[in-house]
Amino acid sequence: MTGTKTEEKGIIKDDMRYDVAVVGAGQAGLAIGHALAEQEKRFVILEAADSVGSAWRNRWDSLVLFTPRRYDALPGLAFPGDPNGYPTRDEVAVYLEQYAEHFELPIELSTPVRSLSKDADGFVLDANGRAIRADAVVVATGPFQAPIVPAFARGLAAEVVQTHSAGYRRPADLPEGRVLVVGGGNTGFQIAKELADSREVHLAIGSRQTPLPQRLLGRDLFWWLTKLGLLSKTVDSRIGRRAQGRDTLIGSSPRDAKRHRVVVRPRAVAADGRTVRFADGSELEVATVIWATGYRADHSWIELPIQGDDGRLRHRRGVSEVPGLYFLGLSWRHTRGSALLGFVADDAAFIAGQLDGDREPPAGRSTVPAPQTAGATKGAL
Fold first, then answer.
1. Where are the alpha helices (DSSP H) in the chain?
2. Residues 67 and 341: beta-carbon distance below 8 Å
3. What's the average model confidence in pLDDT over 95-109?
4. Phi, psi for 338 (deg, rounded to 5)
């Protein structure tokens, strides 16, 4: 009985045991699901939300990926539409749903995993009150789980509207008045430029950036990155070590933001009442603050020794120090492409090889910070 053709599809039985349980039905979970189906593994994909790829539908309305469609496909199914065009948020969500249906992947929706533990008989997942057993587990929940908001946000007055970029949808939802967007990643720039069409907008940038054009010499940036092999540079390489510490802006820059009438400011450092103070000592009275300050991964539900004393997730290419436990879809899990929609397939194939026993576990160890502050648009991921 395979994971894709079982009569029990859609029904988890208390006595059911799987070769592999996958947590998360986003792009990473679907990519590893495709590989497991080809291996005829008995597996299940557990998704907390009520739809596949729901994280995409929960982003702002106007989000457009900056990776062309030709680079956004998962294994075995092309991304529909103009390969040189850029898909919208809803196009990605629809594609992921179609992908799951096309390959008949065994996905259990509305099934949050409350805990993951291990006993002498293997892994035990508490799936919303039901016990699921598996020989191996792939955590494919991605890095965008818990929004980060700086502690000084508590100093803002109650009448100042605050929302994280995770909760922002459209300009019409915000009250009139001056808006401050905090965060210099792709998300912060995109939201600030959209809002500047209808109101005064300031953008506080606190991190070092590497602005890159969307197109260069008539080619999309990702054509160049792929041809030059930059997306395959590993986390341990010299380029990889340098790139991890910088926000890469695609098609945005402070100069471009100013052309859209966005006022660029330095890092926001404090707040009191309706006033926000910046690193250069200047202040600004605001009506709304949007925190485009990134996310952190939340693995608190995993009751296993997966982190070091420094709080970092311990793994090598997604292979954890707990035998049979793997991580997929994290930013810089192995390369810059590890969390990119169309590039996660490489990491999924590697984990599938580990699960199939055809490769030796990788030597050495790499670590990933537990609080991940990636503020980039998911389309870049």
1. 27-38, 54-57, 89-102, 186-195, 221-227, 238-244, 254-259, 344-355
2. yes
3. 97
4. -60, -30
